[in-house]
Design goal:
mainly beta
């Protein structure tokens, strides 16, 4: 069975070996038909502290690492533009 993956933006890299990744999803409202954007932040494991705020990364579901961390960075999609 394939693991769940998301692509999102790193919004915080202050904690040791942990980054916060914001994943946005868009859907059409069932009644009004307007495209609505919803976002959620995931605490993600970053073993080598290599990802910085603004990077776009792919995260993958893993076994629980701590109370809130159940995601790990799979790969860097796009580095931050300076």
């Amino acid at each position: 069975m394939a693991r769940k993956t998301f692509i999102g933006t790193v919004v915080s890299d202050k904690a040791d070996k942990t980054i916060s990744v914001k994943v946005e999803r868009k859907f059409t409202h069932p009644l009004y038909g307007k495209v609505v954007t919803r976002s959620k932040k995931y605490a993600t494991h970053d073993e080598n502290n290599e990802f910085k705020t603004g990077d776009i990364v792919e995260i993958i579901a893993v076994r629980p690492i701590s109370k809130t961390k159940t995601w790990k960075v799979n790969r860097l999609v796009e580095a931050r533009k300076d």
